[in-house]
Amino acid sequence: MTQDATPITPKNEDTLRGFLYALAAYLLWGFLPLYMKALSHMGPAEVIAHRILWSLPIAVAVLSFQGRTADLQRALRTPSMLAMGVVTATLISVNWGFYVWAIADGHALDAALGYYINPLFSILMGAVLLKERISPLQKMAVALAALAVVVLTVDLGRLPVVAIGLMLTWGFYAYFKKQLPIGPNQGFALEVLLLTPFALGYVVYLHLTGTGHFAVGNSFDTAMLVGCGLVTAVPLMFYANGAKGLRLSTIGVMQYIAPTMILLTAVFVFAEPFGTARMIAFPMIWAALALYTASMFRDRKKVRAG
To answer: Which of 62, 120, 184, 303 is the most exposed place for a label (fewest CB within 10 A)?
Structure first.
């Protein structure tokens, strides 16, 4: 599952169009585990390679429709933008790797946990890297989330690697993405374009060694791999358009839709065990998110009052 930071509208108002776009994006991300589970008999690297390959034509088609291909060309000619694109492309591909492996290997609950704690990690990153001031409520939220991770670590006997991996890769991806001075659609196109040679090389290798699943007789597998482009690019495009028509606080609340759907799918569809430790840790995370949301609305109220 991937998301993109987009500036809100100058009027800073919620619009029905923005809400519907964002809702569609989060619902598609919420259903994504079902799609990825259908590909669980394939290696994660093969799935990621096809996510990249089939996302590229969609991303380029959208830019062509918008008349923004010049932005992509400019990024390819600018060393600093190209270097930042390499960083974000690397982070998003590793994030996809954690996600695809988690769903295929029965760790969807850990994936949900990773996306739940991501906004809290972003607060911590802002305080440490950007020297942003965090409120007492936000400090409590971060502390609760950290305690939840400790509970799971003690129970597992190790760190919840999937959740931490998704949190770190997405958190740093969002941080560096803000340093990329082009729009979200252009940035996504740049990332998949940079990753395409590696993805294509890997797919060719799988074909030559007879270990791939694309175009080898099973039309369902082939269609599902091609569809990886749609399930990867379309939610990102919906989100990019939706975020333009919503307040940041609205987006902040709506971002819980996808991990909640992942959690429900993991428990009721994939039958992953919830366990005592998770019964303790997840309510702690939800309490932390409630504090985070309350802090966000309180800060917004102060800004409006000012």
So the answer is: 303
Cα angle, residue 83 at apex, residues 77 and 89 outer, rounded to 5°: 110
Please indicate, yes or no, if residue 67 is contained in any of the structural domains: yes
Q: Which domain holds residue 227?
A: 16-301
Q: Is residue 8 part of a domain?
A: no
- What residues contact residue 70 under an 8 Å CB cut-off, 6+ apart? none
Taking a C-beta distance cutoff of 8 angstroms, is the pair 166, 33 a contact? no
In degrees, rounded to 5, the angle at the alpha carbon of residue 18 between the alpha carbons of residues 14 and 21 is: 150
CB 149 within 8 A of CB 120: no
Element housing 148 (H / E): helix 136-156
Q: Flag whether 11 is in a domain.
A: no
From CA 28, how far away is CA 49, in angstroms rounded? 20
Residue-by-residue pLDDT tens, the chain, 306 positions:
544 444 443 455 778 888 999 899 999 999 999 999 999 999 999 999 999 999 999 999 999 998 999 999 999 999 999 999 999 999 999 999 999 999 999 999 999 999 998 888 888 888 888 787 888 888 898 899 889 989 999 887 888 899 999 999 988 998 888 888 888 889 999 999 999 999 999 999 999 999 999 988 778 999 999 999 999 999 988 887 887 788 766 777 888 899 999 999 999 999 999 989 999 999 999 998 888 888 877 776 766 666
Sign of CA dihedral 26, 272, 275, 155: negative
Is 6 inside a domain boundary?
Answer: no
For 247, the 3-state DSSP assignment is coil
- The per-residue b/e assignment along 94-129, b for 16 or more CB within 10 angstroms, e otherwise, is bbbbbbbbbbbeebbbbbbbbbbbbbbbbbbbeeee
Domain total in the chain: 1
Neighbours of 301 (CB within 10 A): 11
